[in-house]
């Protein structure tokens, strides 16, 4: 799965500009699905209809956090706003890439009262090598993503955009290995999660599923002075109980727990105090959809060096396959 993860994390796809990543995923799933379509907001849906049982929706968001140019000054330096949860401390000295490959260095204003204080986000700018507004290759409204190479260190995988390309990888691999189920399974690669779970909302309305599961990353409590949290890297996928946006439906949560126990797949229980996933949007569509979330533990979420453990990824695929058998 490493090559797939490298390909997915390397692709361009900030919220609202998912076309490049959608192409990459589409090429992967084309030979595997019975039917593929794109919904009006841009989410990609692969359907595998094995039987007439339940309509099951499996979701991972394909968009990633990034920035968008708001203003270019007369010297060609660009100011920018956030696409999703972007924090100053994670990005000074880093780089961004635009859809056409233009690279920008994230610089910081020299005149600061106290250089040891965390600067304001507004003090950052992009240097794309321009000398004036006229020769600046980027303009107002252009989105960019953070760049950092995909690396492996033992079983740890490190990259930008693990959130949530790792979920996309889990879904693709599950689709690849799914041989038999009684159900009508919809694999959804949703747009615009990072700006408010917008793609998941419309896609769920369209599919009208009996059950929905989001696959996304969650933070861990296993780094120095981390906020206490019972999730560790490499200890198995985390079955969500609650996060800041949803409480998992007991039936979906318990189905995952039972199948993990039955198949002896390691798992952890997750209570996440900050942040949420597409499951929060999916469960509130129409008259309500029983929804849950399977999380891949991830360190340094929303930095350009998000780290997951390969074994957790593999076990997430195994667990989803068990869940699709037992649902
Ligand atoms: Co995120
Ligand atoms: Zn995410």
Describe the structure.
25% of the residues lie in helices and 28% in strands. The protein is α+β, with helices and mostly antiparallel strands and 327 residues long. The chain folds into 2 domains: 2-64 and 160-326, 3-Layer(aba) Sandwich (Aminopeptidase), CATH 3.40.630.10; 66-146, Peptidase M42, domain 2 (Elongation Factor Tu (Ef-tu), domain 3, Beta Barrel), CATH 2.40.30. Bound molecules: cobalt (II) ion and zinc ion (ZN).
Reported by name, the CATH topology of the largest domain is: Aminopeptidase
So how many helices?
7
Which class of the largest domain in CATH terms? Alpha Beta
Instruction: Give the overall form.
Output: globular
Main β sheet profile: 8 strands, mixed
Instruction: Give the SSE order as H and E letters.
Output: HHEEEEEEEEEEEHEHEEHEHEEH
CATH homologous superfamily label of the largest domain: Zn peptidases
CATH architecture of the largest domain: 3-Layer(aba) Sandwich
| End-to-end gap | 26 Å
What binds here, in terms of ligands, is:
cobalt (II) ion, zinc ion
User: Which regions have little confidence, pLDDT < 50, spanning 5+ residues?
Assistant: none
Helix content: 10-25%
> What value does the Rg take, in angstroms?
20 Å
Summarize the structure.
This protein is an alpha+beta fold. The protein is built from 7 helices and 17 strands. A hairpin with a 5-residue loop joins strand 1 (35-38) and strand 2.
